[in-house]
Amino acid sequence: MSYQIDTVCIHGQGSRKAIETTGAISFPIYQTAAYAHPGVGRSTGYDYNRVQNPTRQEVERIVTDLEHGTDAVGFATGMAAVNAFMELFAPGDHVVATDDLYGGVIRQFRKVNEKNGMQFTYVDTSDLAAVEKAMQENTKLIYLETPTNPMMQVTDIRAVSEIAQKHGCLLAVDNTFLTPYFQTPLDLGADVVIHSATKYLEGHNDTLGGFLVTNNEQIAERVREMVKTTGACLAPFDAWLILRGIKTLSVRMEKHQENALAIARWLQKHPRVKHVYYAGLTGHPGYAVSQRQCRGYGGMLTFHVDSQETAHRVLERVRLIKFAESLGGTESLMTYPFTQTHADVPDEKRRANGIDETTLRMSVGIENVNDLIADLEQALA
Ligand SMILES: *Cc1c(COP(=O)(O)O)cnc(C)c1O
Q1: How far is residue 217's CA from residue 76's CA, in Å, rounded to a whole number?
Q2: Residue 64: count of CB within 10 angstroms of its CB
Q3: Less crowded by CB within 10 Å, the N or C end of the chain?
Q4: CA 60 to chain CA centroid, nearest Å
Q5: Is the CB of 81 inside a 6 Å radius of any atom of ligand 1?
Q6: Whose CA is nearest to atom 6 of ligand 1?
Q7: Whose CA is nearest to atom 5 of ligand 1?
């Protein structure tokens, strides 16, 4: 029997590891650094917390089932997951990546992987011909974010997976924005899914975490070896917070989306708003692909206002909505990509991608939508 996704958020597909025998409804936090051995040359299966922890294993089980993978590896942060994954590649390897990536991922590629001899080509991956054209003999990976941050560009995962397959390289998709509730990239041909669990999975703006999910046993084994070696494992208490957060993922995602769509439509009609980017709007260039590959559009939207003054005024005036980085939590947050998440992106490049002094990004929370609209109304006035 297989359960529907809202059930999987709470129970997973199978049952818990036999280690937990008390019947505790909420999985315990195994806050320990090490485990006692029953004898010489014997182990309970648990030796040291960097490698094994029951609470971490429980959240990994749920995330594996949600993403339709065979394994998920928990990390201290989303960036730690990206970093460990990129360690599987070697100097001289080439990567084709989305040109509108999360700023921290671009920084990882530039400051760590390029320094270590890897090469990167950034393209608009929603343009399949551009992806094909960027492929080289030594291309070992295509790395996507869809929808992108902050411009909400949508890439056809299935079509890109066919390009990856033809060239014998891997496809990794960052699924932080839509979460497995709305999109399961492994079903569409991806080999690896990356998560910043800090965002929707945990969902309450109160801890950091990351996952790498795959259906390729060899990748899983190499990534586990890497986290054991480099050490950025997910802590037991943070694993528990994410476990608890995921229980309400289905109801949160529905509400985030309902609020985001209402706000996107309201913003479209506002005289000071020039353009709204949300894949759930019929005029969005990624609408058709989204309809095909996703079950929803999520809670993130970006908009352009009429001037830099308006943008600054909105950020200073919002009250219920907080002017803060991050996204995906119960609280609505607004960011200014130009000076925050994309401050490190060369000016010419961020402008070419549509990020300028008038761009605002909103992570729509699960407050009452009329209260959120009233806050935007007074801030935009
Ligand atoms: C936040 C984020 C990351 C990095 O995750 P951390 O948990 O902050 O390390 C990676 N990708 C996307 C899309 C993100 O939003």
Answers
A1: 22
A2: 22
A3: N
A4: 16
A5: no
A6: 78
A7: 78
Q: Look up residue 134 and give its two tokens.
A: 């960027």
149 lines ligand 1 (CB under 6 A): yes
Query: Ligand 1: does its nearest atom lie under 6 Å from the Cβ of 176?
Result: yes
CA gap 216, 121 in Å, rounded: 25
| Binding site membership of 234 for ligand 1 (Cβ less than 6 Å) | no
- Measuring CA to CA, which residue among 14, 57, 70 is closest to residue 217? 70
Residue 310: how many other CB atoms lie within 10 Å: 19
Please count the residues of the chain.
381
- Cα 160 to middle of ligand 1, angstroms: 22
Atom of ligand 1 nearest to the CA of 81: 9
Pocket test for ligand 1, best of 85, 198, 200 (most atoms within 8 A of CB): 198
Q: Which two tokens stand for residue 85?
A: 């994954």
Our answer on whether the CB atom of 105 is closer than 6 Å to any ligand 1 atom is yes
> Using one digit for the tens of pLDDT, what is the confidence trace for 225-276?
999 999 999 999 999 999 999 999 999 999 999 999 999 999 999 999 999 9
d(CA 293, CA 88): 28
pTM score above 0.90: yes
Query: Each residue of 314-371: pLDDT tens digit?
Result: 999 999 999 999 999 999 999 999 988 888 788 888 888 889 999 999 999 999 999 9
Separation CA 268–CA 73 (nearest Å): 40
What is the share, in percent, of the chain residues with pLDDT greater than 70?
Answer: 100
